[in-house]
Specification:
Blueprint: H1 4-8, H2 24-50, H3 57-73, H4 77-92, H5 98-132, E1 148-152, H6 156-166, E2 172-176, H7 179-186, E3 193-197, H8 205-214, E4 221-225, H9 230-239, E5 241-246, H10 251-262
Parallel strand pairs: 1-2, 1-3, 3-4, 4-5
Length: 264
């Protein structure tokens, strides 16, 4: 059974005051709606992006309406309202500006999908760990201040944007543009957190994460992505992900995700 408390912590799910009152049958129905959203959204997003410049604007609006409907069913009210705003915006902007209006919205919905999947996964993982070792037998891991971050992305512009977002946080951010460069850096350094792009040439983020773990580094890994499909998320988790940041990035999302990972 899904933990209600964990669902309450998911950003953009407006379920406080409702989920506490759900019985097992109602909760199961809600979880099914969440699962349906996780499964269907990536395909709808891909269709939307593929047809954004198509002449058949009615098809584009149908896709957005379908996304709105799913968001309502999972009680993502703020995003559902924003979805309606996107529909109105697209009716009033020129063809060349459509992508600008929807990019950040789709990123927010993708992040919601990933947050839901992460919550469900770690609920299952926690239950399995509790079966293997009772809480009183687990060792307390001392917390230490974490300040060093290694960011890996093959796009120089993105690394520059990340540096700009984090320059006032006090974190020591090191940026490299390839997996090979990251591994060279790790020979003499031990970052406290990793930000890894997934789609990189020669060595992708999954492979780099595995090599990081194989080399003895245990710091949290946050993947930078634009793909919220369940297969993609599970593959990242298996490679060591503790969380995700969805592109295009924004300061609030980046800092909150980093702070959350550093507290674990």
């Amino acid at each position: 059974m899904v933990d209600k408390e964990r669902l309450l912590k998911i950003a953009n799910l407006n379920i406080a005051g409702e989920i506490e009152q759900m019985d097992d049958s109602q909760l199961n129905e809600y979880v099914q709606a969440l699962s349906s959203f996780i499964e269907k959204f990536p395909a709808l997003e891909e269709k939307f992006k593929t047809n954004l410049d198509a002449e058949d604007s009615d098809f584009i609006f149908e896709i957005l309406v379908a996304i709105c409907d799913m968001l309502r069913k999972i009680r993502a009210d703020v995003l559902a309202e924003e979805c309606l705003n996107q529909i109105n915006n697209l009716r009033n902007v020129g063809e060349g500006k459509k992508e600008v209006y929807v990019t950040n919205f789709l990123a927010a919905v993708s992040m919601l999908s990933i947050d839901i999947q992460m919550a469900m996964f770690f609920v299952e993982q926690t239950e399995e760990e509790q079966e293997e070792a009772p809480p009183d037998e687990k060792e307390d891991v001392p917390q230490r201040k974490t300040t060093s971050i290694l960011a890996v992305d093959d796009v120089t512009f993105f690394l520059g944007a990340l540096q700009e977002l984090l320059k006032v946080t006090g974190y020591k951010l090191t940026c490299v543009n390839s997996g090979a460069a990251a591994l060279r850096f790790l020979r003499n350094n031990r970052p406290d957190l990793f930000l890894l792009d997934i789609d990189m040439p020669e060595m992708n983020g999954y492979d780099l994460a595995r090599k990081i773990r194989e080399s003895g580094h245990t710091a949290p890994i946050i993947f930078l992505t634009a793909n919220s499909s369940h297969k993609h998320v599970m593959k990242a988790i298996e490679a060591g992900a503790v969380d995700f940041i969805v592109k295009p990035i924004n300061r609030i999302q980046v800092i909150s995700k980093i702070e959350k990972a550093l507290k674990k």
